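[audit] Reproducing an earlier prediction to check determinism. Same input, same settings, fresh worker. If the C-alpha cells differ from the archived copy the diff job will pick it up downstream; this log only records the rerun itself.
[audit] input (220 residues):
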Amino acid sequence: MNRISRPDMQILQNILSRFGSFISRRRTRLSQVLGAMFVLIFVFSEKKLDITAPLVVGCMFILGCVLVGIATVGRLWCAQYIAGYKTTTLVTHGPYSMCRNPLYFFSFLGGVGVGLCTDSVILTLVIVAAFVFIYPITIMNEERNLRKIFGSEYDKYVARVPRFIPKPSLFAEPDEYTVKPSVFRREAVDAMYFIWIVGLLELIGCLSELNYLPVLFSIY
C-alpha cells in the first residue's frame, strides 16, 4: 500500500484548510440556500406519515417541540457567556465548560427538532445531512483560528473539554459574570429563530390543509 508523502500531505492539508475557510465564510449563505430549498420541499409536498401513521407524527411533533425548546434555552445560555467575547477572551465557563462548541450542539438539537415538526423523516434527515456537511468543517476552521489567537491556553482547553458532546461532570460557572447587554440582545434575537421556524411551518401546514397550496409530490 502506497503511503502519502510529506509534500503531498501538506498539499492535502492546505486544500482542506482552504475548503474549510470557504465553508466557514459562506456558512450563513449556504444555510440560507439550504433553508430555502427545505421550505420549498415542505410547502409543496404531502407528508405520507400524516395519513399512514398519525400517532407517530404526533410523537414526532412533541419531541420536535421539546428539542426546539431545549435548543432555544441553550442558545440563550451560550449567548450570555459568549456575546461580545468571541475573539477577545477564551470562554471556558457555563456551557463552554462542558464542551467547546455548545452553540453548535444546541443548534443541532434545534435543527433536528424543526425537522421532526415537519412530520417528515426525509426532511429531518436532510437537516442532519446539511449539518454534518457544514458544521464539522466550520468547527475545525474556527479551532485553527482560536489556536492562533490563544495558543497554549487553547491547547489546554482542548485537552480537557470535549469538542461537541457535552460532559456534565465538567460543568463550572463563576459567581458573577459581566454580560454586554447590547450584544446579548442581538444574540438573543438570533437564538429564538428555531421557534419562529416552527411557527412558520405550522402556518404553512394550515394553509396546505385548507388547500391553499398545491401538492406536487409526496414524501415520508
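[audit] rerun output stored. Observation attached for the diff report: The chain is about 70% helix and 5% strand.
[audit] end
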